[in-house]
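Hi U.,

Before I forget, here's the chain from the pilot set. I'm dumping it here mostly so it's searchable later in email.
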Amino acid sequence: MATQTRVTALLVELEGGRREALDELVPLVYGELREIARQKLRYERSGHTLTSTALVHEAYLKLVQLDRIQWESRAHFLAIAANAMRKVLVDHARRRKRAKRGGIVPHVTLHEVADLSVKEADRILDLDDALDKLAALNPRHARIVECRFFGGLTIEETATALDVSAATVKRDWTLLYVWLQRELEREF
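Structure:
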C-alpha cells in the first residue's frame, strides 16, 4: 500500500513538472513494466532482437521525452508506458523491414540475416495501421486495444486508465478483438 501511495505522489510531482520524479517512479513500477514487455514480446518471433529489459528501457526513453501529461493513476501511467512500448516495437519493425529492403546497408553476418523477419515486421506494422485506422473511427477503442494487447492490462486496469466502467471495457474488448482479427486477416 505504501508503494501505491508513493507512486501516486510521484505521478502528481511529475504532472507538476518535476521530471526527476520519473527517475524515482520507474524503479517502483519496473517489475510491472517488465511484465508488460514480457507479455508483448511473447507474441513476437523467437530470437527477437529486443529483450523485455531493452524494451522497457527504450520505452523509458520515450516517456522521458513526453511533455506535461495529466497522470491520473498508476494504471494510466502503465497504459502510457504500454503505448511507448508499442511505438518502440513499430519503430524496430520498420528499421528491420527497411534493412531487409536495402534501405540501410549494415554489415551483418549470415546468422543475423536469418533473424530479420520481414513477415514479423509486416505483422507489427499491420497491427499499427489497424490501430491507427481504429483511432480515426473511435479513439477510446484504440486505447482499449493498446492497453489490453500492448499493455497487458486487465479489464479493470484498462477501465481505470481510460476512466470508463469495467463493463464498457469488457463489452468493447469482445467486439474489438474480433474486429482486429478481421482487419489483420484482410492485410494478408
